[in-house]
């Protein structure tokens, strides 16, 4: 990316830059989600790591990941709607 000062960017260039930043933030959030979900579900479900997962471990991981994703989505939606409400009240 160029090191051009943002003051000399056109409106379209600023918008493109903002889109790139938003995309990078979304990628970072997805990576964080996967990392935390993996760590928490592994810690919760895998008592003795081995070469394969038994049925109970597979079920535990699947359920843990589902619950984690549901919670993440709920928090994200709630946070987004709160931000939107605050913007509308300004």
Question: How would you concisely characterize the structure shown here?
Answer:
This protein is an all-alpha fold and 90 residues long. Helix content is 77%, strand content 0%. The longest helix has 35 residues, at 11-45.
Describe this structure in words.
- The chain has helices at 11-45, 55-88.
- With 90 residues, it is mostly helical.
- The protein has a single domain (11-88), classed as Mitochondrial import inner membrane translocase subunit tim13 like domains (Helix Hairpins, Orthogonal Bundle).
- Helix 1 (11-45) packs antiparallel against helix 2.
- 1% of the residues are buried.
Query: What is the first-to-last residue Cα distance?
Result: 34 Å
Report mean pLDDT, rounded to a whole number.
Answer: 90
How many β-strands, per DSSP?
0
Low-confidence stretches: none
Tell me the strand percentage band: under 5%
Helix tally equals 2
By oligomeric state, this entry counts as single chain
What name is given to the CATH topology?
Helix Hairpins
The secondary structure category is mainly alpha
Main location: mitochondrion
InterPro entries: Tim10-like (IPR004217), Tim10-like_dom_sf (IPR035427)
Keywords: Chaperone, Disulfide bond, Membrane, Metal-binding, Mitochondrion, Mitochondrion inner membrane, Protein transport, Translocation, Transport, Zinc
Subcellular location: Mitochondrion inner membrane
Describe the structure using short key phrases:
90 residues; mainly alpha; Helix Hairpins; 0% strand
